[in-house]
Design goal:
Largest interface: A-B, 51 and 57 residues
Number of strands of chain B: 12
Number of strands of chain A: 8
Oligomer: heterodimer
CATH superfamily of chain B: LarA, N-terminal domain
Distance between the termini of chain A: 93 Å
Strand content of chain A: 5-15%
Strand content of chain B: 15-25%
Radius of gyration of chain A: 29 Å
Number of domains of chain A: 3
Largest sheet of chain A: 2 strands, antiparallel
Number of helices of chain A: 28
Strand order of the largest sheet of chain A: 1-2
Chain lengths: 569, 317
């Protein structure tokens, strides 16, 4: 304390400023996440996709893999510019995953944390530093390895960013698992009370429910296939916090690694560059550094420091500070070795080859439908960063994460499952929130004509064929102004009575059908539906021929005739 | 009317709040537990022999048109002070007013205002939509029109899936139970405001079919013997008043439409307390005979109203 007075400087509470900024950015992110939802206007003003567009690694990998300039990712330039001035500030001040890790680490069992630290943390400020052959020291360079693999694989046409990008892991985990589960968990008790409790109770609970529904919870209750997988990955990032503080950020995060490499050239530096050799206090920078940003010789590692400024605020002698002044003392040398570089290069080249050998994705399953506006399969996989924004925003919950249905490279990419939801005729939201343009932002008239697939009827299930029951619910819902489902009047056996009756039996006008899937979603048959969307190229030739014949013999009713007939008043 | 909706899971409670109260009351009285389902008595029907009155109004100022159509019927005499009124337009589709798939927003707004003026204590506007409800409420223009009336008694909320309760359809011939919306069952008056449209299965969708927007469950399952089921459902929710919006009608590609060539402007409203009569009359607007519509025949056969237009007193204004 005495030292502080002596310096005579007003000390800025940096640590608290940083915490305030972290909270502000976290709430901003959560707000954007909540806003990534239809409000009926057809436009998403704000979306959490901003996070992806700010990430230089997302930009780099999408541009390299897509072999094209992507204007959408321009905000990454802001991050690059700021990083070249401030260093890896993004990780300490902005990144919502980092903030959540900082906030939740206290939830881990303390004993577990302490024991791991005591046994594994080598970088204590002891008179005789332990040998540098510590296990966890080597983990630090893993992030550079991952960065290299992602970038090299991207060049060779394999997009891996979705598996290792912190925002992909965070947003996807939240969108497909945390958010829907939370919503169900919160609303379930209110629903139970609503249905079972006397009015004296619901008079209290219902206003609370209304408030939560209006401002906090998502509008729709989504459900996703493979939600547990994305959740497990997110959970693992949090669990690693038990091994070491900010384990993910220090050791694994490839986006942080890229920003770290830029940070080496940053103007802003911690001063002094070394942990003070004459530090009289018990406190000690490297022990408390959340990023472990000092090497064995107690020099600052610019690639690691995330400018949390704890060392400035907590320094008992008021020496530690950050400044733009050049110093003679050199920071720790660049850690990734040539061997590591070569290893990541080799892996980055090998993975695309292996992925192609395992499954080249050229023969997709008939029911593998991509979102409306999606680019060709190859280009789509190159650009998609697996952020799940499209799945979050889809108003009918039709977009679902794939696992390996589309080949080994397709994990977590969006697929359209018409049995669960359909593509709203007037909706372009998935194209609006895609951060890299893997799903193009088509103008509405173009999207309405975009062919996702074709509807094909299954005569073994469809009611007027299979059971002799009237239905054509599919025709009713077809959103095209000239309906793509027509029917023929034919005699069919009514299963219930054994008699014959005239039935309206539907067929598809293949030249019009866009595969929006509302027919499949609304088909009253449980489970496998009587009409299903398949990829256009997989419609069997005999079905095509049959539908064309039916169209000739069952023309649609003429318009003019009806208009003239209508009498009016 | 809501053609149907197939994707929602039916939220079938073992018993709901009202039944819970009934049960507690029954237990504490030492009586046998109340029956597990609603038993609703259909509202008293018009006395036999009385000639139903039907108003047909024409005009292009839609807000004034509604008042004009109601004039021969004596306005809204059935709305008692403080009554809970359900105004049920068709908001089924993500379509604009000129595409003629939903009830015209100005008519809905005018009706809500008239209800308030008549002393209604609560006016609820809703529909269980076929397309996404957010899109449908916005595109139809109805949400905005209703919300422009800044009155705490008016609500234009989305359907809450928790509020569907199973109801026995005692008079039903083709169905004997379905889930209905609780707010609709609790309403004192049910003002039915469909739009007249083409429909390839039912031929036309008019006043009787509009009840489907009050239903829960998988409505695709109603499409088998649809016409009789529509009549059955109307024994549970019998409109106090039906106003069919024929300001513009959809002649083809219904019920969702989407093509302006298929829309014909008639600037007409058909209003009556007898829904069967309104349907019968509205059918003639399409140059069809009332008995061509199977659901009208089924409902008339069940005594839900008069389909013989010679027996209906028609007032054209």
């Amino acid at each position: 304390m005495g030292d502080r007075v002596k310096t005579g400087r007003l000390r800025v509470p940096w640590k608290w400023l940083r915490r305030a900024a972290q909270l502000a950015f976290l709430f901003g992110f959560l707000w954007l996440f909540r806003k990534t939802e239809s409000d009926g206007t057809g436009v998403i003003q704000f979306a959490a996709n901003l996070l992806f567009r700010l990430d230089p690694l997302v930009a780099a990998s999408a541009i390299l893999a897509g072999k094209q300039f992507i204007a959408l990712v321009w905000p990454a330039l802001i991050t690059i510019a700021l990083t070249l001035v401030l260093g890896r500030f993004f990780c300490g001040w902005v990144c919502p995953l980092g903030t959540l890790l900082d906030m939740t680490r206290h939830l881990l069992p303390q004993r577990f944390q302490r024991s791991v630290r005591a046994s594994a943390l080598p970088l204590s400020h002891s008179p005789t530093p332990p040998s540098s052959a510590s296990h966890f020291l080597h983990w630090r360079v893993a992030k550079f390895f991952l960065l290299g693999v992602v970038l090299v694989s991207a060049v060779f046409g394999l997009q891996l960013i979705g598996y290792v990008n912190p925002f992909s892991i965070l947003v996807r985990g939240m969108a497909v698992a945390v958010d829907p589960w939370l919503n169900r968990g919160v609303t379930a008790p209110f629903t139970w009370l609503y249905k079972n409790a006397p009015e004296s109770v619901t008079n209290v609970t219902e206003p609370v429910y209304e408030f939560l529904k209006a401002g906090v919870l998502p509008f729709q209750q989504n459900a996703f296939v493979w939600a547990g997988v994305s959740f497990a990955i997110l959970l693992a990032v949090f669990a690693l916090e038990g091994v070491e503080r900010r384990f993910w950020c220090r050791n694994l995060c490839p986006s942080g690694a890229l920003m770290g490499l830029m940070a080496r050239f940053a103007l802003l530096r911690r001063l002094p560059v070394r942990v003070c050799g004459n530090c009289k206090a018990a406190a000690d920078c490297d022990e408390f550094c959340r990023m472990g940003a000092f090497d064995e010789r107690e020099r600052l590692i610019p690639e690691s420091c995330n400018l949390c400024l704890d060392c400035v605020t907590d320094c008992p002698s008021g020496v530690a500070r950050f400044g733009f002044r050049k110093t003679k003392a050199a920071p720790a040398p660049l850690e990734p070795s040539r061997r590591l570089f070569l290893a990541s290069l080799a892996t980055g080249v090998a993975l695309p080859v292996i992925a192609r050998a395992v499954g080249d994705g050229s023969r997709l399953p008939a029911d593998l439908i991509r979102p409306p506006g999606a680019r060709g399969e190859r280009e789509f996989l190159d650009l998609c960063v697996r952020c799940a924004e499209c799945m979050k925003v889809c108003p009918t919950n039709a977009l679902q994460p794939a696992l390996f249905e589309t080949g080994v490279e397709g994990a977590f990419s969006p697929r359209f499952i018409a049995q669960l939801g359909y593509c709203e005729y007037n909706c372009t939201l998935c194209g609006q929130v895609c951060p890299t343009g893997a799903i193009r932002r088509l103008p509405l008239p173009e999207k309405q004509k975009f062919i996702m697939g074709k509807a094909v009827f299954d005569k073994d299930l469809c009611l007027p064929f299979a059971k002799g029951e009237s239905c054509i619910t599919c025709e009713e819902h077809c959103p095209l102004p000239e309906k793509a489902i027509l029917f023929r009047e034919a005699e069919a056996v009514v299963k219930k009575t054994g008699q014959c009756a005239m039935m309206k039996q539907p067929f598809t006008v293949l030249s019009l059908c866009t595969g929006c899937g509302i027919c499949e979603t609304k088909c009253p048959i449980e489970g496998k539906r009587g009409v299903r969307i398949v990829r256009e190229e997989t419609v069997p030739a005999d079905v095509k021929k049959e539908y064309e014949e039916l169209e000739k013999t069952n023309p649609r009713p003429a318009a003019t005739q009806a208009s003239e007939r209508a009498a009016g008043y | 009317m809501n053609e149907m909706h197939a994707d929602e899971q039916s939220s079938c409670p073992i018993f709901n709040r009202r039944q819970f109260i009934h049960r507690v009351a029954a237990w504490s009285a030492g009586a046998v537990a109340a029956p597990p389902l609603f038993r609703l008595v259909p509202q008293a029907m018009a006395a036999p022999g009385a000639q139903p009155l039907l108003a047909v109004a024409k005009g292009t100022d839609y807000e004034a048109l509604l008042a004009k159509a109601l004039e021969p019927l004596g306005g809204l005499p059935f709305i008692k002070k403080g009554a809970r009124v359900l105004v049920k337009p068709n908001i089924g589709w993500d379509r604009t007013p000129e595409q003629a798939a939903n009830t015209h927003p100005l008519l809905v707004k005018a009706m809500v205002k008239l209800c308030l003026a008549a002393g209604a204590g609560k006016v609820m506007v809703f529909d269980r939509t076929c397309n996404d409800c957010r899109l449908s409420y916005v595109s139809s223009g109805i949400q905005k029109a209703v919300q422009s009336i800044t009155d705490p008694r008016v609500t234009c909320a989305f359907v809450d899936e928790r509020k569907f309760v199973p109801v026995k359809i005692a008079k039903g011939k083709a169905m004997n139970e379905w889930e209905f919306y609780k707010d609709a069952l609790d309403a004192d008056c049910y003002i039915n405001m469909p739009i007249a449209k083409h429909h390839r299965l039912a031929k036309l969708t008019l006043g009787l079919k509009n009840v489907m927007g009050l239903l829960g469950g998988k409505r695709g399952n109603i499409h088998q013997s649809l016409d009789q089921k529509i009549a059955d459902l109307n024994t549970v929710m019998k409109p106090t008043l039906t106003v069919i919006d024929a300001t513009r009608i959809l002649l083809r590609n219904g019920p969702s439409g989407g093509k302006l060539d298929d829309v014909k402007e008639l600037h007409t409203l058909v209003a009556s307390t007898d829904t069967v009569a309104t349907d019968a009359y509205a059918t003639t607007l399409f140059d069809m005979k009332p008995d061509e519509i199977e659901s009208t025949r089924c409902a008339a056969a069940m005594g839900l109203g008069e389909m013989d237009l010679n027996k209906v007193k028609i007032v054209k204004v």
